[in-house]
Amino acid sequence: MINKRWVEIAVGGFVVISLAAMVMLAMKVSNLSAFSAEGAYEVEAHFQNVGGLKVRAPVTMAGVHIGRVAAIELDSQRFDAVVKLAIDEKFNRIPLDTSAAVFTAGLLGEQYVALEPGGEEKTLKNGDRIRIAQSAMVMEQILGQFIFNAAAGDKDKKN
Question: If the chain, 159 residues long, is cut into consecutive pieces of 10 residues, what is the mean pLDDT of each piece?
């Protein structure tokens, strides 16, 4: 009788630990842990195309996580994407002529914003705009150009 009760308690404990591990894994994969917007300043960058970039995506510099994407909006005047970046206050010496680019990380294709520092002495402050922004490379456009160029090359060979 005691043996059976001990097995039931052990199985229950295993289930609870497994559920806790699944919740932690889900938070890690969805980037809900780590960076908080408190103690951050916000800058914005305008992109022609952000691809699959999402709010809360990482912002990196030299591969180091320095912030998160706070918001993505459409500029109704210029018809481009306005991406607001929340950068941790401890990274407050980023040059004003820094450039931003949307890149893809890993096999799952998660997109993030990478900042490349410039050489100017003035630094980005809350509300500033990053002037140089490189849009995301959309795989469908690249494949379409490749197929179009391959077809054009075949047509030239026939003539």
Answer: 82 92 80 62 93 91 94 93 94 93 81 93 92 80 77 61
- Report residue 125 as tokens: 């402050």
Those residues whose C-beta lies under 8 Å from the C-beta of residue 83, and which sit 6 or more positions away, are 44, 45, 46, 47, 50, 53, 69, 71, 72, 100, 113
Which of 104, 79, 94, 158 shows the shortest CA–CA distance to 126? Answer: 94
Output the CA–CA distances (angstroms, integers) from residue 53 to 19, 80, 117, 132, 138, in the order listed.
Answer: 29, 14, 21, 18, 11
In whole angstroms, give the CA distance from residue 47 to residue 75: 10
Beta bridge partners of 47: 81
User: What radius of gyration do the chain's Cα atoms show?
Assistant: 23
| Exposure on the CB side of residue 159, measured as CA atoms within 13 A | 6
The edge-to-edge listing of strands for the beta sheet with 132-134 is: 129-130, 40-47, 81-88, 64-74, 58-61, 110-116, 99-105, 132-134
Q: The whole model's pTM is what?
A: 0.68
Residue 12: name the closest of 1, 20, 27, 23 by CA: 20
CA–CA separation, 159 and 154 (whole Å): 9
What tokens does 48 get? 């022609």
